[in-house]
Write a structure and sequence with these properties.
This protein is of the alpha/beta class. It has two domains: 133 residues, Rossmann fold; 69 residues, no CATH class. The chain has eight helices and ten strands. The strands form two sheets. Strands 6-7-8-3-9-10 form a six-stranded mixed β-sheet, with helices on both faces. The protein is globular. It binds adenosine-5'-triphosphate. Adenosine-5'-triphosphate (ATP) binds next to strand 2 and helix 1.
Length: 280
């Protein structure tokens, strides 16, 4: 199938542009980005003129109607797709192929069944040929940080869904990526586990200082976790509004849910999404 939003050639990734682009302090940039998927059967304009910037250390969530191109945005930043128009920039270099300086967490943990939790985390190190002693130290630190201590030798089937996602999170953070991309990482978990994972992710984000771009369908999750929430329109998706979340860095879950800053941000996002779902 020929698609105009090309999958990028494997194992490219070296930035073509030597001159740094964009502004210092901005890690990820989408400039006027459009993506069209064209095949004999279908022609889909998935994204239209998307503009978004993510600062170093920021936590930005992306919300929007189903099919508006949220996952496509993450794939563009990872270099797994190239835009039809516009420019995607990561760490001041244009994305021209798969980038190794990102971490990716998906809805399903996708762990190797025959490897222990620690073995799954260290897979990242093996694929990247990282120094094994350093990787092992980092894996142990992360296991401790996400509360998996005592389960490092468990096989995936011995872990709950939440624990499996913690393993996936450790695996994605092992190489200290410049951006952590998370695509509905807690969508398959029950509501209570999801809340616990939100609290843990917030703590891990504060501890590591990693820049995070999270795709979610949960307004509460987006507001609780983020500095900023980008709200997208229905397809062709574009960023309709950016809501800054004015919450303290310390966020107790239950208390946060009732804070006026939380309800104001969540209400505004709900309004914007409601307007979208009624749009033609
Ligand atoms: N590889 C592809 N080839 C053809 N069309 C694609 C491809 N990837 C995505 N699309 C289309 O692009 C649009 C955006 O898809 P995407 O998965 O980015 O949306 P999304 O907002 O993440 O959706 P959801 O919230 O339902 O997961 C959809 O219409 C989808 O069918």
């Amino acid at each position: 199938m020929s698609v105009s939003a090309h999958r990028t050639p494997a194992a490219s990734g070296s930035p073509a542009d030597a001159e740094p682009l964009g502004r210092a302090g901005i890690v990820a940039e989408f400039h006027d980005v459009s993506v069209r998927f064209s095949s004999k059967k279908r022609d889909v304009l998935a994204l239209r003129n998307v503009g978004l910037e993510v600062e170093h250390g920021e936590f930005v969530s992306i919300v929007g109607p189903s099919g508006c191109g949220k996952s496509t945005l993450l794939k563009l930043l990872a270099g797994l797709l190239l835009p039809t128009d516009g420019r995607v920039v990561l760490r001041r270099q244009r994305v021209v192929g798969p980038r190794s300086d990102i971490g990716y967490v998906f809805q399903r943990a996708a762990l190797l069944e025959w490897r222990t939790a620690r073995g799954n985390i260290l897979l990242q190190a093996e694929m990247r040929r990282m120094d094994s002693a350093r990787a092992a130290r980092r894996a142990d630190e992360l296991i401790e940080m996400v509360g998996l201590a005592g389960f490092q030798d468990a096989l995936p089937h011995e872990l709950s869904g939440g624990m499996q996602q913690r393993v996936a999170l450790c695996r994605a953070l092992l190489h200290n990526p410049s951006v952590l991309l998370m695509d509905e990482p807690f969508g398959a978990l029950d509501a209570l586990t999801r809340e616990q994972m939100n609290v843990e992710l917030h703590r891990v984000w504060k501890q590591t200082g990693t820049t995070v771009l999270l795709v979610t369908h949960s307004i509460a999750e987006a507001v609780y976790l983020s500095n900023r929430v980008a709200v997208m329109t229905a397809r062709p998706g574009t960023v309709a509004a950016e809501i800054t979340v004015h919450l303290p860095a310390e966020r107790d879950y239950a208390a946060t849910m009732t804070q006026p800053q939380f309800t104001a941000a969540a209400g505004r996002i709900r309004e914007l999404l409601g307007a979208e779902s009624h749009a033609e």
